[in-house]
UniProtKB/TrEMBL annotation:
Alphabetic keyword roster: DNA-binding, Transcription, Transcription regulation
Record's compositionally biased regions (Pro residues): 132-141
Annotated source species: Streptomyces cinnamoneus (Streptoverticillium cinnamoneum)
Listed InterPro entries: Cro/C1-type_HTH, HTH-type_reg/antitoxin, Lambda_DNA-bd_dom_sf
Gene3D superfamilies tied to this protein: lambda repressor-like DNA-binding domains
The protein, known as: HTH cro/C1-type domain-containing protein
Domain HTH cro/C1-type: 29-75
Tree of life domain: Bacteria
Pfam families with a match to the protein in the record: HTH_31
Ranges of Low complexity composition bias in the record: 91-127, 172-184
Length: 781
């Protein structure tokens, strides 16, 4: 217990006022005027050089007793070297920390009225989804969606060497707001230019909403150039929360979160944090804010650092009687039917103009699957916030696994409903959005369904087998010349499924059965046709089966596969078909966004489209080592493509399922195995077309194919040693071409030819191991 005299002395200090530092630029000027170095100051004050650099940059401030000593040193220099007549930075107002001033928060136009955004009833990747209130008719002018002003969060500069991340885009029709931002020092050399930092806009003279959480006063960072930011979400789409309550956001912004329980965290996130992201489509919904919890943060909120039974990651969840689950229930928040697992969604039924949902990702529970995110979970909080922020601004705020996010991106880019005017009442209501899959799930045709699906029970007519290649050439078909070549070289198609999704017409509605139809390559569907008569060189895989074996008799194929048989010059006479009358390029906007994300991230890693082939191969050798965070983003983008397509045919989960029962995924409009089959078939056909053209141009045939990787015998260890060229040295048309874009090829790996032949003779696939590992297990690579 302090004495009365000690307390009075402390009060006297407050009355006199704490000593203040000059602005950072003035600190550097005074030191340089005195001819001193930062190392000299570090030695005099018995601290580190990095600490002094942070003081002069304004990233941190000295504490007593060094604070008084540093101020005395600067005051002495100021007397000897007075400032010029040039204006200096304004001093911090009373009550702010040294060198800082009050930070304004997002301004909100008073006349703007938010549109209703009810919580979706069905979300990909969940076992069951929460109850959904009746949808509220959407507003016809979604650009005007702005909620009430946010209370001011505590903000401070991030203490790490992390480049800035681009702020979430502003929807069409929304004006950019001049702002102040937190500057962040540049990271080590990366061949990309940091995007603008998310900003914080001024707040109007309106009293902030009341809060049950106590917050310290807001603080301001150094000014930066204005940037376009949705004023509702000044701090970006997500934050990584550490155990000390520090929330690292994109763009180097750091917030102080006072919450100590999960319900308080949800309240803070929705009411004060300014975290979230605007919708990607004018008829869509804003992204729910994401809070990623470090292991220390999980413990802070009463969660176990790890969950027991971790080997069964898909079914992980807290028991219903766990104290944290009880806290959520008592606070009248809800969990989805998946419960509180690695990805927990906490919500209340949506009210008019207000969506109340927060996504939590518990990092120590393996929320970031290393097969998709690499070593991202091992990054520090600030660097992880930058990594997740890049993914969120280029793709979508993560909503679970990359597969779940890939599927939800389809809905975000093609919302199922839009605002339409009811002719009878004149009111705006929700109506079907043309080109989307709508709100009602559609059962597939029997041959398109997996065998356990209810519509497939009792079906004897065969099923679609449109899967990726897994083919190895018969070793007996290897020539002596091929066996004497020194190298086996593998090349891989960049995001082959993404390239196949481009401009792909798919069915949007229900299948219609047709007998003896005339084949029409413009009609998406499934066709029962006999392609066993198609004669191809046995050194090539058959384009009609994933095994590469010649088909035996009639079988079901997608439109892309049958159209390729016609392209090869063969007559086809379908005996039966299931076609769809309502069609469209449903995946086009999904493709375009992911393609842009992939190309931009590759460019950030130094792999640009203007590189020649030699420079491209060299850049690909080193691109993943330049920046671990960007490498994780690239891996996640590729997994989003592959996983999103896979989720279109999600199989039943759990050991207690019985064939013929419906499982939750079937209730999604995006459960569409026919669309998945169409994408995979087109990717396989594209691969065969390139192999066929290569054989015609050079007489070279593949040794093995695994999905989008093909292996050839080669005179040298590089793809340039065997890829076909024209007389002028350019890649032969219609063959494999090296480059960074989707559909182009890259070097997958090189091994000795003897190694490849040995694997082939043992019945193994060289394409699986050409890189030195297992391509199936290393699917994120």
């Amino acid at each position: 217990m302090p004495t009365e005299g000690e307390l009075f002395a402390l009060v006297d200090e407050l009355l006199v006022g704490a000593p203040t530092l000059p602005p950072p630029a003035e600190r550097a000027r005074l030191r340089e005027a005195a001819g001193a170095t930062q190392a000299d100051i570090a030695r005099a004050l018995q601290t580190t050089l990095k600490t002094v650099k942070n003081w002069e940059a304004g990233r941190s401030h000295p504490r007593p007793p060094r604070l008084q000593a540093y101020i005395r040193l600067l005051d002495g220099w100021a007397a000897k070297y007075p400032a010029s007549e040039e204006p200096s930075e304004p001093e911090a107002p009373s009550g702010a920390a040294p060198g800082e001033s009050e930070r304004p928060v997002a301004s909100v136009p008073a006349a703007a009225a938010p549109a209703a955004e009810p919580l979706a009833a069905s979300r990909p990747g969940t076992v069951e989804e929460p109850e959904t209130p009746a949808p509220t008719p959407p507003a016809p002018a979604p650009a005007a969606e702005v909620p009430s002003p946010l209370p001011a969060p505590t903000v401070r500069p991030v203490p790490s060497q992390v480049p800035a991340v681009q702020a979430p885009p502003v929807p069409a029709g929304r004006a950019a707001t001049p702002t102040t931002t937190t500057p962040v020092p540049s990271a080590p050399s990366v061949p990309s230019v940091p995007a603008p930092v998310p900003a914080v806009a001024p707040v109007p003279a309106v009293a902030p909403a009341p809060s049950t959480l106590r917050r310290p006063a807001a603080r301001k960072a150094a000014p930066a150039k204005p940037t376009a930011v949705d004023p509702r979400f000044p701090h970006g789409p997500l934050a990584v929360l550490d155990g000390d309550g520090t929330a690292y956001c994109v763009g180097g912004i750091v917030l102080e979160c006072p919450a100590t329980t999960i319900p308080e965290l949800v309240d803070w996130t929705l009411g004060e944090s300014g975290i979230g992201a605007p919708r990607l489509h004018r008829n869509g919904k804003d992204s729910d804010p994401l809070i990623a919890l470090t292991a220390a943060a999980a413990v802070r909120f009463g969660l176990p650092e790890r969950l027991e039974g971790f080997e069964a990651r898909r079914s992980l969840r807290l028991p219903d009687d766990h104290p944290v689950v009880k806290q959520i229930t008592r606070a009248k928040w809800k969990l989805t039917q998946r419960g509180f697992g690695p990805w927990a969604r906490i919500y209340r039924p949506a009210k008019v103009g207000q969506r109340q949902c927060v996504q939590l990702a518990v990092l120590s529970w393996d929320a970031l699957d290393p097969r998709a995110w690499g070593d991202a979970a091992d990054l520090g909080p600030a660097e992880l916030a930058r990594t997740l922020g890049l993914y969120a601004t280029r793709v979508l705020t993560p909503r679970g696994s990359t597969a779940v996010t890939g599927l939800e991106l389809m809905t975000a880019m093609r919302p199922p409903t839009r605002a339409v005017r009811d002719n009878a009442t004149g009111e705006w209501v929700q109506g079907h959005n043309p080109g989307s899959l709508g709100t009602r799930p559609v059962d597939p045709a029997p041959p398109e369904a997996p065998a356990e699906h209810p519509v497939a029970q009792g079906w004897k007519g065969g099923f679609l087998d449109e899967e990726a290649y897994q083919w190895v050439r018969d070793p007996k078909l290897l020539s002596d010349a091929e066996c004497l070549l020194p190298w086996a070289v593998g090349i891989d198609i960049n995001t082959a499924f993404l390239a196949a999704a481009a401009r792909l017409t798919v069915g949007l509605g229900e299948p219609v059965r047709v007998e003896r139809p005339a084949f029409d390559k413009k009609r998406p569907g499934s066709w029962l046709v006999d392609l066993s008569h198609v004669e191809l060189d046995p050194r090539l895989p058959s384009p009609f089966t994933p095994s590469g074996e010649r088909p035996e008799g009639p079988a079901w194929y997608t439109t892309a596969t049958v159209a390729y048989a016609v392209e090869l010059g063969y007559d086809v006479h379908p005996a039966e078909a299931y076609v769809r009358e309502e069609t469209g390029a449903y995946l086009d906007p999904w493709h375009d966004r992911l393609k842009d994300a992939y190309v931009v991230t590759m460019a950030d890693l130094g792999v640009t489209k203007d590189l020649d082939e030699h420079a491209f191969l060299a850049a690909m050798e080193r691109h993943k080592s330049l920046d671990p965070g960007l490498a994780a983003v690239l891996s996640a983008i590729k997994s989003t493509v592959k996983g999103g397509i896979g989720k279109l045919r999600e199989r039943p989960q759990g050991r207690h399922y019985r064939d013929g029962e419906r499982w939750p995924a079937l209730e999604r409009p995006t459960w569409r195995p026919d669309i998945r089959a169409a994408v995979i078939a087109k990717a396989r056909v594209n691969m065969h077309r390139k192999m066929l053209n290569t054989a015609k141009a050079t007489g070279q045939y593949p040794l093995a194919v695994l999905s989008d990787c093909v292996v050839y015998a080669s005179t040298g260890p590089s793809p340039l040693d065997f890829l076909p060229r024209t007389e002028d040295g350019t890649p032969a048309p219609g063959t494999f071409r090296l480059g960074p874009g989707p559909g182009l090829a890259k070097h997958e790996g090189t091994q000795n030819m003897a190694w490849a032949v040995d694997l082939m003779e043992q019945g193994h696939n060289p394409a699986r191991h050409i890189k030195g590992g297992d391509a199936v297990m290393d699917e994120g690579e």
